[in-house]
Write a structure and sequence with these properties.
It holds the Pfam family TPR_12. The protein is mainly α. It contains 17 helices and no strands. About 55% of the residues are buried.
């Protein structure tokens, strides 16, 4: 039903030299050489796109920004609407990664229009997918659920394993965040199988992270940690800096749900440092929330925790992460709720009661 996964962002001669599982240091070396040897603006645009994507995956934000803009200028000089669309897709994806969601939507919407004008079906599909993912990350499920399903149908129709895995795991994430864990697990596991059959290692790593998340919610802590270890090995092999940081944040989530608050605190601190190194504010804010929750469970002063939660709520509102903001509000309500049966209300310096393993949804 599905062919082997491929990477349409590697175009021209790069398409034969690089594959979906090429490490990003390898991609960067090959693309830089192709850029230096390019004889036409279109060749420079294609090489620049690959340079941009390698830097982005490696967590090098400034270099990725310069590279996608260079690719766009070269594509515009070449008069190639499809190449311009791919450059904007890369820029929009980078903007989303950096937490600039309004900019991501603008760039990706422009990419959709250019891809449509240039008749580039893949650029059109990937740009629409970018818009769908941006809405999903914001928590606007009503607006993007149908688009995810549409893109999944298109990917299946064309036998595109990589895009099928992306759409299916996105739909699974929405089910998971709205509490339908059975459906989420079914879709995450199917996407992991499709990724493995299509030899899409990166897609499998992200899918395994989703499976681990749901398994953890169900109390299968050790199984979840094993799955994350398998995914981490893939991330390290492919130099996936951002995916590795999110893997570590998920490991912290699993430990937190299991009541291992000290280990969770240390692991959140690790992912926080990784996100800061790559200037990724969304992951940084989510790690800060996990760190605040872990410290609260370990007895941190209540007033200090509430001050940090207020700052995080503002950050999530600024970035546009509705679901994450709801998590802050829910945790604050839990900390400040009056206990039943005449138990004293939480006070500064008090350790909040240990709660059962519930989904952190971060």
């Amino acid at each position: 039903m599905y062919g082997k996964a491929f990477a349409p962002e590697y175009q021209g001669e790069l398409g034969s030299a690089l594959g979906v599982n090429s490490s990003y240091e390898e991609v960067l070396t090959t693309a830089r050489r192709a850029h230096a040897e390019a004889g036409t603006p279109l060749e420079r645009a294609r090489a620049g796109l690959a340079v941009a994507e390698a830097h982005r995956r490696l967590g090098r934000v400034a270099e990725a920004g310069a590279a996608w803009r260079d690719s766009y200028r070269s594509a515009r000089t070449a008069g190639d609407a499809g190449a311009m669309a791919w450059a904007l897709w890369s820029g929009g994806t980078l903007a989303r990664q950096c937490g600039s969601l309004p900019l991501a939507r603008r760039l990706l919407a422009h990419a959709v229009a250019l891809a449509d004008a240039g008749g580039d079906r893949l650029a059109h599909g990937y740009s629409l997918a970018g818009l769908a993912e941006t809405g999903r990350i914001q928590g606007d499920y009503a607006a993007v659920a149908a688009l995810h399903e549409q893109l999944l149908a298109q990917a299946r129709e064309h036998g595109e394993a990589r895009h099928t895995v992306w759409a299916m795991s996105g739909i699974a994430q929405m089910h998971r965040n709205t509490g339908d864990y059975d459906k989420a697990l079914e879709l995450f596991e199917e996407s992991a199988r499709i990724a493995e059959a299509g030899e899409d290692a990166r897609g499998r790593a992200w899918s395994l992270r989703g499976v681990a998340d749901v398994r953890s919610v169900r109390g299968e802590t050790e199984r979840a940690l094993d799955l994350l270890s398998e995914a981490e090995a893939i991330c390290r092999r492919m130099d996936l800096a951002s995916a590795l940081a999110y893997n570590h944040k998920m490991r912290a989530n699993v430990l937190y749900r299991a009541g291992r608050y000290a280990s969770a605190r240390d692991t959140y601190a690790r992912s926080l440092a990784e996100f800061r190194d790559m200037q990724e504010p969304r992951g940084e804010a989510l790690s800060r929330l996990g760190l605040a929750k872990s410290r609260a469970r370990l007895g941190r002063d209540l007033d200090e925790t509430l001050t940090e939660l207020a700052a995080l709520e503002q950050d999530f509102a600024r970035i546009g992460l509705r679901h994450a903001r709801e998590m802050v509000i829910a945790f604050r309500a839990e900390l400040t709720a009056r206990p039943a049966a005449g138990t004293p209300a939480p006070r500064s310096g008090a350790t909040t009661p240990r709660s059962p393993a519930v989904p952190a949804r971060s």
